[in-house]
Amino acid sequence: MGAHISIPMYERTVGQRLAFEGERCTDCGTVAFPPKGACPDCRNDEFETVDLSGTGTVYSHTVLSPGGAPPEFAGQARAEGRYVAAIVELDEGPRITAQLTDIDPETVEIGMPVSGRIRRIYEEEGVVRYGFKFGPADD
């Protein structure tokens, strides 16, 4: 989804924004996405980088109307109307918040397979911010 992210922070996190790059704990094997400072299961602070599939299922979702959109999505909400924000459970285990795209909000269901797409998220400070959104999984 989105929130204000400084240009230096955006540049440091480009791997997780453009390539579904996560971390696997070297102690217990838990996969974290986006990368964390410590393992959410065992608190270990050593990880190996892993490429994630970018596929998963809808764990939960809600439909936002233009009036409920965060400021960075206000233009999109005015242009497109309602959109879906979801918690997606990736095939590798982590749950992440993401916008669903290329789908009628009325057809979204819990357990629905989805796949990640790299898309333009918004523009701020003269820089177009890219990141992931999810849509119906390709069959």
Automatic annotation (TrEMBL):
InterPro entries: ChsH2_C, ChsH2_Znr, NA-bd_OB-fold, Thioester_dehydratase-like. Pfam families: OB_ChsH2_C, zf-ChsH2. Coiled coil: none annotated. Residues 50-116 form the ChsH2 C-terminal OB-fold domain. Residues 16-48 form the ChsH2 rubredoxin-like zinc ribbon domain. It comes from the Archaea. This is DUF35 domain-containing protein. It comes from Haloferax denitrificans ATCC 35960.
